[in-house]
Amino acid sequence: NSTGTNGNYGDVIFGDGTLVMLPVAGNVALYSIDGGETWVQSTLPHSGSWTGCYGNHGFVAICTDENTAVATYSQDGKTWTSSPISLPITQKWNCVKYAHTQGVVAGQYIAVGNSSNIAISSTGLSWLSEDGNDSITLPTHQNWTSVFEADGKIFAVGGNSNIAAYSINCL
Q1: How far is CA 116 from the centre of its chain?
Q2: Contacts made by residues 103-109, CB under 8 angstroms, sequence distance 24+
Q3: What is the pTM of this model?
Q4: Mean of the per-residue pLDDT values of the chain
Q5: Which residues contact 52 (CB under 8 A, 6 or more apart)?
Q6: How open is the CA angle 153-162-12, to the nearest 5 degrees?
């Protein structure tokens, strides 16, 4: 079915019976509670290119524009936090995923971007780039474009290269 809107959308997220489409440019997200038959607009707190995920009973979206540090959270995919939530480091954030696995980041959101830095959040509302005294980083300064979970490990993939990294103890 058509969304009935003019726009360019990238990520499609599903959680708790709701589909959410995030814009490639702009601040208008779309959601559907009937399996994609009808779509309703919702407003994100910042205009840009967005990526997101569902986990811990909520949606998290991060702006992927160069040198931004903006994230937002929604429990239902309809209403997003009214003001942007700052990620801990200003950089281009490329991907955010929810880790279900066991280990240090179990039950947390993980964001990767165009450096070796990783941001983690248990709620999607506050973000950290350090865990105690240890810095949470990937092995190289790279444009990390994807992060995902498989077989109890967290994997990150570098864009435009042959570099990938994984963590047995989940960071």
Answers
A1: 16
A2: 103/152, 103/154, 103/167, 103/169, 103/170, 103/171, 104/131, 104/169, 104/170, 104/171, 105/154, 105/170, 105/171, 106/170, 107/55, 107/56, 109/53, 109/55, 109/56, 109/60
A3: 0.80
A4: 80
A5: 11, 13, 20, 22, 59, 60, 61, 62, 96
A6: 60
Highest-scoring range by mean pLDDT, 34-43, 79-88, 102-111, 151-160: 34-43
Count of C-beta atoms within a 10 Å radius of residue 106 = 14
Query: How many Å apart are CA 36 and CA 57, to the nearest integer?
Result: 20
Between 11 and 154, residue with greater pLDDT: 11
**CA 156 to CA 148: how far, in whole Å?**
7
**Residues 51-104: tens digit of each pLDDT:** 999 998 899 999 888 777 788 999 999 999 866 677 767 778 888 888 876 655
The encoded tokens of residue 2 equal 């058509």
At 46, which amino acid appears? H
Of 108, 111, 74, residue with least CA distance to 92: 111
What does the block give as tokens for 141?
């300064």
Alpha carbon distance 94, 101 (integer Å): 21
Q: What is the pLDDT of residue 114?
A: 82
As beta bridge partners, residue 131 has: 134
